Amino acid sequence: MKRQHEQREYRSVIADSWNRCIGYGLHHDHEPEPASLDETAILGLEQEYETLLSTTETEVLPYYNNIMSNSRCLILLADSGAQVLKGWGDRRITETRLRPYFCAGSSWHERYAGTNAIGTAVATGSPIQVQRNEHFLKLNRSIIGSAAPIFDTDRTLIGVLSAFSDAYLPQAHTLGMVRLLSQSVENRLIVRQLGSDHFILTLNATADNIDSPWSGLIAFDHTGRIAASNQRADQLLGDALQGRNLSSLFMESRNLILNHSETAAIQLTTTKRVRLSGLLKRPGRIKTPHQKPTTRPTERTRPTGPHLETVSIDDIEHGEPSVRRCADQAGKVLERGVPILICGETGVGKEVLVKALHQGSKRRDQPLVSVNCAAIPPELVESELFGYEPGAFTGARAQGSLGLIRKADKGILFLDEIGEMPLAAQSRLLRVLQEREVMPVGSTEHIPVDILLVSATNRPLSTRIESAEFRADLYYRINGLSVELPPLREREDRRQLIHRIYQQHRDGNQADTLKPEVMAALENHPWPGNIRQLVNIIRVAVAIADGEEIELWHLPKEFLGEYGNREEPAQKPVFDPSSFSEAPQANDNSRTDIMKHTLVVYQQCMGNVSRAARELAVSRNTLYKRLRDLGVR
Q: Sorted alphabetically, which Pfam families does this protein's record hold (predicted)?
């Protein structure tokens, strides 16, 4: 269904472009005038677009020199008006009469060149591939064009990167690679313009893919205010990020992010409860937008929360028989090489169970590689999973890529959200599971792999099989043992689990247990986001309490009012001098002023004793005494 919807949208984009061409007065036999710029005019173009040109050359030339020099493919960089600025590659890809249109100064705007990759990308602001007969002008129907827009740090369209090839050559990866190259240019522009005085945070779904060109990129200052982000970061965070603050995007505090090591991945949770891995570079420390850390983070070494690196079944089950049964069964069959399919709602702990299985297996010292199948762009799933040879396709790295499956060799491969995997990749994965061999993209060599497979899904795969979006034969291949983790609201050990998570995240000086009313609110909540939501709520409450015992009003307001059955406690009493047992005497005026000021500061600090004591420059004991005298505590 999703693929059909995308095809309808694509046809609509082409149809809209043809309608614009008709509105411009074009006809199919029209032949635009090619540009004929002299050296002075070309030099002027190069000077006007020096930053864009030099940045693009830095990204494109390595691909051309190492890969494309032997291929019949031409890359063009155009400005925001679809005027060609420069080209790299083979200009012999098509008929002689088309070659003048690939020269600097030529316009591919729809008004002159009809429907085409560059002009239509400018018109729509989106990546597109235009097949030969989709071109409005007959002149262009011997080529296929793929193009992706380039945006600057202010999200203004400043150019288009495109690849043209003979219509009869394979096009499998061209659009995906053009999108990657355009994002690489955007990333380099962000780093070039902001990296000297801004923090740069690189984001991806897992730590294994942080160094991928498809990672999100955020530039922000020391206050956490975001100055720029790339399109992938906006996609991962689900919103336009420019001008936002880190505190509105992540559950983790700004200081935690700013003070994190530059050589290890940081595990982040967005306010929309999406888990991401990040890598921080401080101002002036970035040389390339995808510089690898000194010690590359892996699934086994990246921080994933307290004690999760040595997580065991005892850490995730506290008396719930169904969870214990799932873990026991999965652990036994995994050692026999039987593939496991873990089912359950979002946030029930599928990934944590996989980590526990890995730690409890004989392969605990071998890699655990997690792949979020929903987070990898469809055009790149095969190359990311199976790897590729140097020169396999336009935009491939010069050294090739090992691929995530081969990274999991001798260990465990965890395919999360496997139901979102594209059909083409499903077919290849089926062959890998049958033959236990991987054939990288662009290679004819079969490479043996030794992996144990665990997959996970948050919705029944049977519905996707019925809609022809998931292969039935792959389903039976990955479903050696199917286990289902119960939602948090149905677990018998809910109270013990809440206590355990609180123990993991509480500050050292906080009470060992939660207050009865707080525990009751947490225990009776329906938890649509399950354990992941519970962890986030507790972390928020711990942060707001800031060392104090957690009260009901420390829980997020959206949690308290989510279902209309929670009420915040009454407001603290406002200071009134008459509340003293003895009326203040004349010489007590200064004390009265002090007490008034104390209460104002305490209320401004939202009842946080530690923070108020710091503001007042007094000890906590002194503040407690004043608050008792005021009748507040």
A: AAA_lid_14, GAF, HTH_30, Sigma54_activat
